[in-house]
Specification:
single chain; mainly alpha
Length: about 150
């Protein structure tokens, strides 16, 4: 069930309800895009839709597919750059909590995706501190993965 909270702010991302309407809303609650638009407005529904499209991408694959997925990511954010900002914040949170993922291959894949896609995007839009944080966290995981792999050999 989706809950709402009244606000008088004009910017939907400043609206406290936005924090409850993340990319996982549709998957976690079974809410339809129409229900999100009805409860939270069309603008929030569009942001959730953009985040959902990005979440469905498989970003680390062969170079050609990766380029196509990056193109899809850029198209998803073309309507509203806030979609990218939320996605970058979500990725930084994911990287900070990466140790809680048990599968080392999944951790390595997420770290690789972060180095190749998200950190450069953050840098290109002028968010250097976020780029550095993403890279530091990702390289720490990739270094751990490499050390573990070499120990097994």
């Amino acid at each position: 069930m989706l809950h709402t909270r009244a606000t008088d702010k004009d910017d939907p991302t400043e609206d406290p309800r936005f924090g409850r309407v993340g990319k996982q809303t549709i998957e976690d609650t079974g809410a339809t895009p129409e229900e999100i638009a009805e409860k939270f407005g069309k603008e929030i529904a569009a942001l959730v839709d953009g985040l959902t499209k990005i979440a469905k991408l498989d970003l680390v694959t062969k170079e050609a597919t990766q380029a196509e997925n990056l193109r899809k990511l850029l198209l998803a954010i073309a309507d509203d750059v806030r979609v990218l900002l939320v996605k970058l914040a979500d990725r930084l949170h994911n990287m900070r909590t990466l140790a809680h993922i048990r599968n080392p291959e999944t951790r390595r894949r997420i770290a690789q995706e972060t180095v190749e896609i998200y950190a450069p995007l953050a840098g290109r839009i002028g968010m250097q501190n976020m780029r550095e944080d993403l890279e530091d966290l990702a390289f720490a995981e990739l270094d751990r993965s490499e050390e573990h792999t070499s120990e097994l050999q």
